[in-house]
Amino acid sequence: MITIRLNGESKAFAEQASIQDLVGTMDLEGKRFAVELNREIVPKVQHAQVFLKQDDEVEVVQAIGGG
Amino acid sequence: MITIRLNGESKAFAEQASIQDLVGTMDLEGKRFAVELNREIVPKVQHAQVFLKQDDEVEVVQAIGGG
Amino acid sequence: MITIRLNGESKAFAEQASIQDLVGTMDLEGKRFAVELNREIVPKVQHAQVFLKQDDEVEVVQAIGGG
Amino acid sequence: MITIRLNGESKAFAEQASIQDLVGTMDLEGKRFAVELNREIVPKVQHAQVFLKQDDEVEVVQAIGGG
Amino acid sequence: MQSESIISAPLVVAGKEYKSRLLVGTGKYQDLDETKRAIEASGAEIVTVAVRRTNIGQSSDEPNLLDVISPERYTILPNTAGCYTADDAVRTCRLARELLDGHDLVKLEVLGDQKTLYPNVVETLAAAKTLVADGFKVMVYTSDDPLIAKELEDIGCVAVMPLGAPIGSGLGIRNPHNIRLILENATVPILVDAGVGTASDATIAMELGCDGVLMNTAIAAAKDPVRMAYAMKLAVDSGREAYLAGRMPRKLYASASSPLDGLI
Amino acid sequence: MQSESIISAPLVVAGKEYKSRLLVGTGKYQDLDETKRAIEASGAEIVTVAVRRTNIGQSSDEPNLLDVISPERYTILPNTAGCYTADDAVRTCRLARELLDGHDLVKLEVLGDQKTLYPNVVETLAAAKTLVADGFKVMVYTSDDPLIAKELEDIGCVAVMPLGAPIGSGLGIRNPHNIRLILENATVPILVDAGVGTASDATIAMELGCDGVLMNTAIAAAKDPVRMAYAMKLAVDSGREAYLAGRMPRKLYASASSPLDGLI
Amino acid sequence: MQSESIISAPLVVAGKEYKSRLLVGTGKYQDLDETKRAIEASGAEIVTVAVRRTNIGQSSDEPNLLDVISPERYTILPNTAGCYTADDAVRTCRLARELLDGHDLVKLEVLGDQKTLYPNVVETLAAAKTLVADGFKVMVYTSDDPLIAKELEDIGCVAVMPLGAPIGSGLGIRNPHNIRLILENATVPILVDAGVGTASDATIAMELGCDGVLMNTAIAAAKDPVRMAYAMKLAVDSGREAYLAGRMPRKLYASASSPLDGLI
Amino acid sequence: MQSESIISAPLVVAGKEYKSRLLVGTGKYQDLDETKRAIEASGAEIVTVAVRRTNIGQSSDEPNLLDVISPERYTILPNTAGCYTADDAVRTCRLARELLDGHDLVKLEVLGDQKTLYPNVVETLAAAKTLVADGFKVMVYTSDDPLIAKELEDIGCVAVMPLGAPIGSGLGIRNPHNIRLILENATVPILVDAGVGTASDATIAMELGCDGVLMNTAIAAAKDPVRMAYAMKLAVDSGREAYLAGRMPRKLYASASSPLDGLI
After folding, report:
1. Which of E205-209, E228-232, G247-251, H123-127 has the least mean pLDDT?
2. What is the largest distance, in Å, between two alpha-carbon atoms of chain H?
3. Pick from F1, F174, F256: nearest CA to E221
4. Phi-psi sector, H58: left (phi>0), alpha (psi -120 to 50), beta
5. What are the tens digits of pLDDT across the range E5-23?
6. Of B5, F129, G29, G179, which one is least surrounded by beta carbons within 10 A?
7. What interface predicted TM-score (ipTM) does this complex get?
8. Contact yes or no for D42/D50 (Cβ under 8 A)
9. How sure is the predictor about E243, in pLDDT bands with cuts at 50, 70 and 90?
């Protein structure tokens, strides 16, 4: 197991978990979202190829109402 | 001949001239206008029956642009 | 006894009471005031000579703070 | 002779002329003024010891009305 | 949606309903064609006209205002502009009624002097009494004095029309506070008449809660009168809608439009 | 009529044409249904959204803003609301671009403090430089400082959006004089962003010559947001038309709307 | 210096000269001591008082206003506050004259309703005619209607005092444009009476060219009435001086205060 | 009386106390005699001067500003007017310090363009840092941006002086709301610099709570500069007193100044 920070909260994942695996836990099917890994954007096309490491900082964001 | 004031100007008419005669001289066919004789309205229906006297004051008015 | 209205309130006085007598009941010594009897001013000099009658309406006023 | 720029204008001085010599040509006796040589302030006490070189840029300023 | 029902609430003057809350004058235009196009663009249903002596020997082929702005299509509102006494104003209204075959809706204005064209409220009160007694439906131009406005309503005027600013000045609503006081006490339509200079002035009048706006110079003296007429139509509707919608409260400080939590 | 050609002139931002000059936010609404109806009533084609962290374990059946305000129908304008440094603002824009499949039009705002939400112009300049270099089309929220506005234009922002008053304050255009100075020097669209409280505020912004108005709270915090949205649509159009029509000159004294001669 | 001669020009009311152009009321103070100190701080020479029924059985030791504000030191200006008809106002003035041993300078005010305390101009005109005929010197409180103001002057009032805003509202000069119109036609002193809320309101009234300002609540309802009284004295003098000095023209753009040439 | 203690509270700038809260410039006067008389009438203790190149071959008999406005009597405040870069401003301050024998109080202004003379806040921040590090006591002219004002204070400026309106425009305080925001956060004196056109503008600045006002054109460009200088002295004192006294609350409706009971 590894521990990362996801949207500011500590979260445990299996070794070799990919961004795609992470996203899979978040009910985001068919929704628009974006992923930042350690302050760098991870394009959707790479979600399956990018794997999480211990202490990674991941941000997953969506669009909400704002002015 | 008698002399009256029409819209503030002196004007001569034949004895026994009626309001209708007066109006007839003013190119008002088919136009909307109103007549005041000595500060009293003369309704259209009476134009033929009301006759001018010396020194009558007649006003003939129309609608024009205004705010 | 007679009854008058003094500043809107009913008040009893002896027959033959003068404005001066009335004023004497009001702690006005040395103060500036004015008297109106039945809506007419009664000059100070006449206060002793003017006598109250039944149902007289008397106003006694002073200056107070106002803008 | 050397040539310097004084307050933006070209001006000729003798070799070895000092800031004091320069100031002496400007009717500044008893007036408050300040001198800048090549963008550095020259304190009054040094005016006699600082000598002009070819192409020096000198500014001499005073206080005038301003808001 | 209940607001839709409100929105459709028409302006009612003397028992007649009007969709448009913009009333316009017909003065100061280049020609009758510009007049016609501007008034069409404004969407106005009530249009003011002046009553003047027929020029003796006037060429009969000259087109006539009422041919262009027909009483069949528009509610013609004859005014008493230029009258400085109650007597002249009453005479003018009677001539107008005869001219329009008994049409008895009039705009009463009695002015004080030619420099300010400020309403003479004393003469206006006198004329209003006479006209109401004589069966006229009086829409009355007055100052922004709330007591006079109320008295004119009590006399029986069908609409009270306080000025925003002097006629033709284009200075806007100089004293919104008085207009508000007038509105609070009113049971007849209150329309701002005179003073509007540009679209936002009309919007502000409607946001105050006025029932309508009457204008002439702001449209006729614009560089492009037809376009300004259209702008004014939008401005009056906009102000009315905003008034009905109920504006947000003013705040001295900021308030974020976007949520504060969930920031990266 | 030449004016018609002018009227049809659309707002052009980053090379794309828009009929509507009203831009609206999506914050502070009761629910997504109200959001949808208000935005439809506003006629807006450019709609701002915020970018926020997905709530972990958020119920997936919750409706999603972009399902209601679809990127197919609207130009989505992601903002950087809540960012207090250039760095955070840049990160947020990059996330937004990824989120919207490479869509690179963003609203940059870098704020100074939560009390005033006043723009931090120094950080804003820094962020604008980075974003423009990174290929973003930047619509930038800033103060009414005319020099900063010009510098942001020189940096390459596609639109400059000075505040009228603090975000969410509804205080209107506090300093029209500065907005005018900004407009005089501008070669990109200038939109008033923030401060509008009611319809006439938007009309005034457009009468000054602004190319558009962006608002959120004035609509969302009105008693009837959908109706206010419609009022704002009319207000922006009205102010634009009035600006193009060219208002009458203001006069200190009156000027009669009805002719003086021919009086009885 | 010619300006010095102007500066010394006193306010002349009913033939009497006054150095101070600030007139103050005596209402709403905590006690007579505060009244006394505030009026001294204001520098006022004309002081308004109300006339009211003596409370029957009132304790005689109670201090009396006119002991504190003595008619020997101040010009006492009895008002008709609270009168809603011409008749009541006239009666009140006659009582005041008797009270003050024939002193015939009065402040006439006839109000319309208790909510707005707006002047009833029709009753005011009637009362003014009666009082002038009866030998009174009438300083009259009225609306900002320029025609009514002129008529009151023509009737023979010695000073006309238009409101700035409703009595006690502290809203300042709501309609400077009307005050200016009144001033242009006036040949008697014009004083703004009512509406002043703070010092700058009084300064603005004087900068418009008014001959003086009358106030009560702005001083009495300040947190520190004595200090505000002093502020008002300075404000009226300041506005008078600025009016006489002639302000600079406004410019849309900047103009350097320091010379442009000779820069390093 | 506690208020008396407050009233005597002087303005403290860079540790020195000043009775007068009016600071004046010396530009735009007809001659040095008018300059001298106006500044005396203003009661100012801090007087700004510009630093300019000595005209080569200037006649030595020409009177000198500092002979008339002597550093012994006045605190001379050299400004950097005309500087458009931080570098020029810093050089000018160093020349001024040398000129005044080490006097290190300066007025920093770095402008953006000659048309608006609007402060360039980015260059101003840079210059302020350099000058403070170099030991200057910096009174800084800036925009009404509350964040920039706070940053200038944090840098160590001894006074922050936001504009009311463009230099020399006489437009008054265009955005009182921003001035208020600046005041709320300030721990150094805040003075309004530039924009004042007449006395009431200065009074309003002080009523907002400003610690002082700096002006030049409003006095020098008045028809009678000496008299306007005196008007400004009164205006600043008046506004200060009113601020300390605490104004009455504004009310939408009237409130009688005279008691309602005891009416005849």
Report:
1. G247-251
2. 84
3. F256
4. beta
5. 445 689 999 999 999 999 9
6. B5
7. 0.92
8. yes
9. very high
| CA separation for the pair E159, E140 (Å, rounded) | 6
Sequence-distant (≥ 6) Cβ neighbours of residue H247 within 8 angstroms: G170, G197, G198, G218, G222, G228, H207
Chains that touch E (3 or more CB pairs under 8 A): A, B, F, G, H
G56 touches chain F (CB under 8 A): no
The values of phi and psi at residue G260, to 5°, are -85, -30
For residue A15, the distance in angstroms to the closest alpha carbon of chain E comes to 25
Is residue D23 over pLDDT 80? yes
Instruction: Tally the residues of chain C.
Output: 67
Cβ count within 10 A of residue C7: 18
CB atoms under 10 Å from CB of G8, counted, come to: 8
Shortest CA distance from H62: residue in chain D: D27
Rounded Cα distance, H210 and H184, in Å? 10
Q: Which two tokens stand for residue D54?
A: 């070819």
Query: How far separated are the first and last CA of chain B, in Å rounded?
Result: 41
Strands G137-142 and G159-162: parallel
At H57-115, the pLDDT tens digits run 555 566 789 999 999 999 999 999 999 999 999 999 999 999 999 999 999 999 998 88
Instruction: Indicate the SS3 state at residue C4.
Output: strand
- CA–CA distance from F101 to each of A32, F88, F95, F105 (Å)? 9, 20, 10, 12
The predicted pLDDT at position G60 comes to: 54
C-alpha closest to that of F182 among F190, F172, F171, F194: F190
Amino acid at G17: E
d(CA C30, CA G66): 11
User: First and final CA of chain E: distance in angstroms?
Assistant: 39
CA distance F210 to chain G (A): 18
> What is the average per-residue pLDDT within E159-184?
94
Instruction: Residue count of chain H, please give it.
Output: 264
Cβ contacts of H101 within 8 Å, gap of 6 or more: none
Residue F95 and residue A40: Cα distance in Å, rounded? Answer: 9
Q: Which amino acid is at E42?
A: S
- E42: closest CA among E240, E205, E243, E215? E215
Q: pLDDT tens digit string along G103-157?
A: 999 999 999 988 889 999 999 999 999 999 999 999 999 999 999 999 999 999 9
Report how far residue F73's alpha carbon sits from residue F64's, in angstroms, rounded to the nearest whole number. Answer: 15
Residue G228: partners with Cβ closer than 8 Å, 6 or more residues away: G38, G199, G218, G219, G222, H241, H242, H245, H246, H247
* Residue G121 contacts residue E112 (beta carbons within 8 Å): no
- At F95, give phi and psi (nearest 5°): -60, -40
Directed axis angle between helix E32-42 and helix E225-245, to 10°? Answer: 20
Catalytic one of E107, E129, E137, E233: E107
Nearest to A59 by CA among F66, F79, F95, F98: F95
Read off the pLDDT of residues F177-186 as tens digits, 9 standing for 90 and up: 999 999 998 9
**Residue H255 clears pLDDT 90, i.e. is over it:** no
Residues of chain G neighbouring C28 (CB-CB closer than 8 A) = 54, 60
* Cα end-to-end span (Å), chain H: 39
- Quick check: E180 contacting G, CB < 8 Å? no
Amino acid of residue D4 = I
Residues D65, G259: C-beta atoms closer than 8 Å: yes
Rounded CA-CA distance E96/G129 in Å is: 37
**pLDDT averaged over chain A?**
93
Residues of chain A that touch chain E, judged by Cβ-Cβ distance less than 8 Å: 36, 59, 61, 64-67
At what angle are helices G225-245 and H225-245 packed, to 10 degrees? 160
Q: Which two tokens stand for residue E32?
A: 């009758």
Cβ-contact D36, H97 below 8 angstroms: no
Strand partners, B61: B34, E53
